Structures are given as structure tokens and as C-alpha cells.
Amino acid sequence: MRYIPASDADRRAMLSEIGKNSVRQLFDSIPDTLQLGRPLDIPHARDEWSLLEYFERLAGLNRRHAVSFLGAGVYPHRIPAIVDDLVSRSEFYTAYTPYQPEIAQGTLQAIFEFQTYMAQLTGMDAANASLYDGSTALAEGVLMAHRITGRKRFLCARSVHPEYRMVVETYSKRLGLSLETVGFLDNGRVDTEDLGGRVDDDVAAVVVQSPNVFGTIEDTFALAEPAHRHGALLVVNIAEAASLGVLKGPGMTDTASRRADIVVGEAQSFGVPMSFGGPHVGFVATGRERVRQLPGRLVGEGRDRDGNRAFVLTLAAREQHIRREKATSNICTNQSLCALMSTIHLAALGPAGLRDLALENVQKAAYVRRRIASETPHRILFDGARFNEFVVRLDDFEGTWERLLAEGVVAGLPLVRWFPELEDALLVCVTEQHSMEHVDRLLKGLAA
Amino acid sequence: MTRRDRVARHASLNERLVFEKGSPGRRGSDLSAADFPRRELSELIDDELVRDSIDGMPSLAESEVVRHFTRLSDWNYHVDLGLYPLGSCTMKYNPKVNEKIARMDGFADLHPYLPESLVQGALEVQKRLEECLAEITGMDRVTLQPAAGAHGELTGLMMVRAYHESRGRGRRSILVPDSAHGTNPASARIAGYEAVHVPSNAKGTLDLDALDRLTNPDVAGIMVTNPNTLGIFEGEIARIAERMHAIGALVYMDGANMNAMMGVARPGDFGVDVLHLNLHKTFSTPHGGGGPGAGPVAVKDALAPFLPAPLIERDGDGRCRLDDERPESIGRVKAFHGQFGMHSRALAYILACGPNGLREASETAVLNAAYVRSKLEGAYHLAYGAPTLHEVVFSDRFQAAHGVHVMDIAKRLIDYGFHPPTIAFPLVVRGAIMIEPTETESREELDAFIDAMLKIARECETDPDRVRSAPHTTRVGRVDEAEAARKPVLRWRPPAGPAAN
Ligand SMILES: Cc1ncc(COP(=O)(O)O)c(C=O)c1O
Fold it and tell me: What spacing in Å lies between the alpha carbon of A333 and ligand 1's midpoint?
């Protein structure tokens, strides 16, 4: 096997040095009755080239030439070549968790930079070193709010990404937490009146997403106030982190009562390939006074014996390897390399590049939305402000969808799978990656 | 030259934070704006929600970004450089071709919500991987949704709970051996269980008497790591499973150590009901500096109804479809379809190895560990005498007599050019030195490591200060972790001036 250096001669020599006759003997501690005694029934070994052929064939079955206007939590953004080049360095991708800081300063410093970028973008004091993805980050945010408040009732906007909500549901159910949903208005925003009427002193947190699953931007500052009046927290989820290039982070206010308490999200938009939905990179950010309640790893700045600046995993007393069942989370392996992708991408963008990217998304999506409204028979739903997604209700859904698909255009995501009342509605995402030709193809298909 | 001089002088050893670099006006990325009519931003988004600037974000040219991260990379130890015997982590070689496969057009750029007819290749990768993992573990069904080992544990335990609830009573506790990884009790708690600790016996395995004492109708199941974290196979596993099953409880296996027995033994054949695997350990997907990994969960048919939704089903014509109609499912544990980029790599590994290669991998992993054990026995205290498989746990007992502790030994090993073993875990061994060489190390590399370990053992007697002050060769010296935790600095802030944001 080409990945294993030991030759038969090596094996014989090593066995004889340790006083064994055969490799089989090494497994004497596994009772005979429990040994398999036959070869595994899996396909026979392939050489490198037949392996590549096999996967090229499968990759080819995926219709990558289709023009897609899908977003909904996974966003098609341009990724500069340097991201993949740098994360392909063995030094980064074949290392593990930086437990030994003296030989892991590269990973540690990069994660510290990631934490800083996430804190800057969200406007919060501190962010962690990553969580599996946005959906599990939201679940962790909910558990964190429960730990802080000791309360068990959560009010969660229906306009939070439904798959995220399902994950929160899965996590919270077993801990006896209850998740009630709050509806949305005609403009796509959270129904503040409904929310205001239902927050009380039992509520642990109000959970919202901005931009929400319809692409509508929420005023998180206004949503913080009713929550805080009752001692509840505001948890904000940001599934499209590129929006923070133009929108204020939920922590960016001087008025404490208007500030979010926990901001979670997904940073895939910064340099991480869509890759059929993973691996991506979740994060959680919070205020200074609550960093000891954060789940997952944290990198801190410290000093070595000679007084040099050095980075090190810190506040480990929150984590499973020290606290076991009392840990703030069970997470161990996280999404370090994806966090590095985001860090590199953000470094390349800089403030001007990030702003340009965000504005291009806002303007292009708004332009396509205007054209659909004026040039096609379909109706735009939800008139609230948005980043790069909007909802359109199709006239003759089946016919239009099929016609576009036949033309190689996946026009968006049918929302009825999650919202029965949004029959015939399509969530359309337009980013900097869509060319004017793509847009014209979409319009042509919609207008026909 | 002292370390301080070296750091002060050499640019590449002295790279600042990205936030301390660059200069306003530089750009590392240009976007040529498309040509279409635009509106004033204030017509599109309410002014009060728009940020003016992104304070503190640095501006660098592309070339500077490359140099920054290349310099940082240079400060890392990694598997491609040398032996990384981190016990319990299976730091094996990560095949390069797998990286190429995960990045293929059609995989890397695939959106998870494309219609099923347009993602048949991706679903086939996942389905094929599921089938291989089921065969390797001897289990019936597999979910690929969990993102890492700990996530798999949580998923599996939620299913245990759902299983009991479907039979009328959720039960209260999960038995967890004291040698278990910290994620085990932490996952049990998040699944809503109390973790009850089971002591190990003098041989380092599960104590059947203690187990009997702790067993009662409130026990939902046991979490067994097999081979356990001492590298010892739990030979009584079948009996343990029988006892659990007799009281209606289930057996969860932490499969982090599956590299010890691929093609040799299968958990499904010794009574395990549910287990997770770590694709980033056994199946060679890269560790990425701490992730991403993937933690598929395999179950016996009795638990299959509770698997997270959706599952991939193969239709009569061979096409794959996502089945969401799973009324007894525990629900979703992650959005989308799991860590697909890890699934393609793991499948590539399995297909490159085939049945013989996988067995050879486990056999060689065990041989390498046995070789290291036999060469270091005597110089280091062997925590338990029982036979071990893919890893071996020593302790610092002999060295502690000279005032040198496991942390010192670990740091000194860095001077010899190796990544240290896992230390201070498992908790049942005081001063644990947990060594897992894996199968992808040559005999020469193992000999060099053994030689270094033996030299360090001698140094502990002849020059303990040298060991205690190690490492001497790295860019930074030992970091004061306690101080860093006392006043945590978790982000950069602009010097003086107004706080960022
Ligand atoms: C024995 C054992 N169980 C569970 C885990 C958790 O796996 P992960 O880090 O992938 O969450 C690990 C490794 O970290 C482990 O060594």
C-alpha cells in the first residue's frame, strides 16, 4: 500500500525485535470469536489514476454548468486564488489542534486574527476560534443563553433559517428548553408586536437572523430593547457574513439596551467553497463579561519565558478536556482550516475590498429585483431592505421552474418546503459572481 | 545567540499581526463592478443600519497577504514534516490526491440545494462512503451529518434517548469509563443524561464488578471506547454488551480508535449498537490545524429509525434520493449534508486502500506502536502491562523522581524535531505520555523518535534543567498559560485611540 512505508522485510525485522512471530500475534488481545476472519467486502484498491477517473466521473454527474441563483445559507462568492494556495500549505492543513504553542504559533496567530476579524465585523468584544457551522453555532448560542439566564423559554423568529431552527430544536429538546416561533410581517421582518407581547420574565432569549431567510435585513437594535426589558438576551444569527461589509454589526451601538448579547453566524462567504454544504465555519461572539461562557476554543495573547509575544489556547477551564460534563460545550475538533480561509480572504479584501464586495451584492440584487418587478409577470414579496436575496412569487410555478431548468438556470430555492403559506415563492440570491449574462438568462426565462 | 536576539533580528521570525501591517489605500483584491444602473445606498437600506467604516481592518496588497501567511505557516509543526505521535488523534499521512479530488469542479463549487437530479455524483459519493463504513464497522446504517467526533457522540446519544423514549421511558444516565475522552461525558450531558463514571480495573480495562454495581434500570447505556484510550482492547466487550442488553440498555462505542482494527474486528460483531468514527483520524482526512473533521455515526437496525433526517436512499435504478420522511428521527444535527469535503477525501482513502490496504494499515499501526513500546519500556514507566494495539501510554513516574515532568519531556522532544505525544490524557494515568505512531511512519523515523526519547530519559538524570527549560530551538519559548488565562486578551485592538467599533 503506497501510504505505508513498512516493507515485508521491515515488518519481519520489527517483529523479531519485539519477540513476535507474526502480525496476527499482535492481535491476540482481541478474542478469536470477535475477529472478522474474512476480507472486508469493499471495492478493491485503485491506483491513483483510476481513483481520479472514478471521482472525475462522479463530479461530472453534478451539473456544474447550470447557472444557479441559490443562496439560503450557502453563498456563491468569488474566492481569490491565494486562499486555496495558502491553505494548501502542509504547514497549515496537516497540523492538528495547537496544543503545543511553541510549534504551533502559525495556527494560533491566524486564529487570533480570525477571532479579531469576527469581533470587528459583529461589533462584539470577542469571538471564539470557530464552531462546526452556522447552524450548530446557533444551537450553541441558545445553550449559552440558557446557561447565562437560567431560563428555558426561547422566542425564535420563523424567519431564522429553517434548517438552523431544526438543529436548535434537536439540541434544545433534550435539555427541556422550549422554542416558540414568532411570525413575520409583510415586509419580511420579525413581527415586533407579536414579539413584544410574548416576551416576559421567563424568556431566556429572543433569537433572530439578519439578513433573515427571506433576505430581509432586521433592525436588531430595535429588537434588543423588548428582550432586555425582561432580562432576556438577544441572540442574532448572521448566515450571510458578507452583509457585514455594509451593515452595522449587532454589537455596534453605544446604547447597551440596543446591543445584541450573543452573535453567532457562518463565515462561509469569506473564502470557503460551497462544497455541497460543508465544511464551512461557524462562530460565536459576545461581550467581554461573558467570554467565560463561550463554547469552543479560544486563542489568547500571552508571553513566553523571554517576554516575547506568543499566542496560546486559553480559558481551557471551560472545555471538555478539563471540565468534562461541566464544560460549556462538547466540541473538540472545530473548523480551524476554514477559519483560516476566511482570515486570508478578509486580509486580501481589506476594508475597501469588503465594502465593494458588499455594495456589489446589494446593488446587483436590487437591480435584478427591480427588473423582475418591471419586466415579468411575477410578484415580489416582502418589501423590506435586503442584502443579496429576495423573494418572488411565480405565476405558473411549475411551468416557469421547468422552463428555466431546461435552459440550465436554477432560479432560486422554492420556499414551500419550509413555509406552506409561501407556495410558488422562490428565494433568489444574486452575488458578485453572477455576470450580466447570467442575469439576462434568468430574466429571459422568467419573462417568457 | 539567545532566542530573544534571534526573534529581534530575523524578519521571518518576527511577523506581526495582520492588523499591525499594511497601510490605508493598499488593496489585496479588486472587483471590477459590473455595468448596471445603481441607486443611492440610502434608497436601498435604512441609513441607521449601514456602517460607516470597518475600524481596525488592515489594508494589504495581495503579495503582502501571501507573505504574512507563509511566514506564519513556517512556525507550525505538521505531519508532512515528521512524526506526530499525538495519541488518540491518529496523525497519519494525508494523501495528496485526496486534496485534488475534494477540489474538483463539480464538488467544490456545488450548492447543497441544487435539485437532486443535478447532484447525483455528490450523493453517490456519500452513499458509497456510507456503504463502506457500514461494512468496515459491521453496522447496518450510517449518517454522515455529524461534523466531528464529539458531534457524532451527541448524535448517537440523542438516538439512544429517542430509542428509550419510543419504548416509554427515556432513562436517566449513561455509564462512562474514567479513561474516556472528555467529549464523552460532555456529550452525554448535552443529550440530557447524567454521566456516571465507571472506574477502570488494575489491568486498565472496564471493571465488570463496578459495572454491575452501577447498573440499574435508569441506565440508558454505556459509552465504551474500544480499544480504549490506553490502547487496550476491552476483551470483555461482548459480555458487557450482554449485560447492558439484558437490562434494556444500549452500547455506544467511541470509534476514535478504529485505526487499531480495520479488517480485523468489527464493533457490529461484538454487540455495539451505535458508534461514531472520526474520518479525520482513521480515514486520513487532514486535521487542518484543529479541523474540519467529520464524525459519521453507524447504527444497528434497531436504532435506524432515529437517525438524523434526511438519509440517502438508493432507488431501484441506482439513483440516490434524500429521504426526509423519517417521523421517528431525532431531527437535524447540522444544516445541509454534513462535511461533504471530508466525505470525498475519506472515500478516496478507502478506495485507494481496498480491503487489503485497510487491514495492512491497522496491522502496521499496531506493529509500529508495539515496536515503540518495546523500545521505550524500561526507560519510561509503562502505565499498564496489558497488551496494547495502536497506541501505548507511558507515564513520567521515573523522570518525576528527578523533578522532571511530562510537560518538560514533551517540550524537550520538540528540540529533537518531533511533535510531542498526547500528554496528561487519559486522566487515569498520572503524567500520561500517550504515543500513537500510526502506520504511515517508516522504521527509520520510529527509530529516530525512540532514540530521542531515550536520550531525553538520560538527560532527565544527567541534566534535568536542560529538559525543564526546553524547548530551546523554537521561535518562542514556553508560554505562560496561567497568566494568559488570568487576563484574557482574545483579540487585537488598535493601540490607544478609540476602541475598535
Ligand atoms: C477517544 C476520543 N474520543 C472522542 C474524540 C472527539 O473527537 P473530535 O475531536 O473529532 O470531536 C477524540 C478526539 O479528539 C478522541 O480521541
Answer: 7
Question: Mind listing the pLDDT tens digit for each residue in B287-302?
Answer: 999 999 999 999 999 9
Task: Name which of B103, B147, B262 is nearest A136 (Cβ-Cβ).
Answer: B147
**Domain coverage including residue A72:** 67-78+351-447
Query: Same structural domain for residues B325 and B407?
Result: no
Q: Is residue A255 domain-resident?
A: yes
Count of all residues that appear for chain B in the document: 501
Task: Give tens-digit pLDDT for B9-33.
Answer: 677 778 999 999 999 999 999 888 8
The pLDDT tens digits of the residues spanning A112-161 come to 999 999 999 999 999 999 999 999 999 999 999 999 999 999 999 999 99
The answer to whether position A14 is within a domain reads no
Residues in chain B closer than 8 A to A19 (CB atoms): 374
Q: How many angstroms separate the alpha carbon of residue B410 from the centre of ligand 1?
A: 21
B27 in a structural domain: no
Is residue A66 packed enough to be buried (19+ CB in 10 Å), middle (13-18) or exposed (0-12)? middle
What is the DSSP track for B204-246? SSB-HHHHHHH--TTEEEEEEESS-TTS---TTHHHHHHHHHH
Instruction: Show the cell assigned to A371.
Output: 427588473
Mean pLDDT of B358-373: 98
What confidence score (pLDDT) does residue B33 get? 83
Residue B464 DSSP SS3: helix
- What is this structure's pTM? 0.98
- Residue contact A249–B332, C-beta within 8 A: no
Q: How many residues does chain A have?
A: 448
Domain boundary among B326, B352, B378: B352
Strand partners of residue B359: none
Q: Is residue B499's pLDDT more than 70?
A: no
pLDDT at B66 over 50: yes
Q: How far apart are the first and last CA of chain B?
A: 42
Cβ within 8 Å, pair B289-A337? yes
Residue B77 lies in a domain: no
Which chain A residue has the Cα nearest residue B412?
A102
Contacts of B340 in chain A (CB under 8 A): 275-279
A275 conformational bin, left if phi > 0, alpha if psi -120 to 50, beta if neither: left
> B286 to chain A nearest CA, in Å?
5
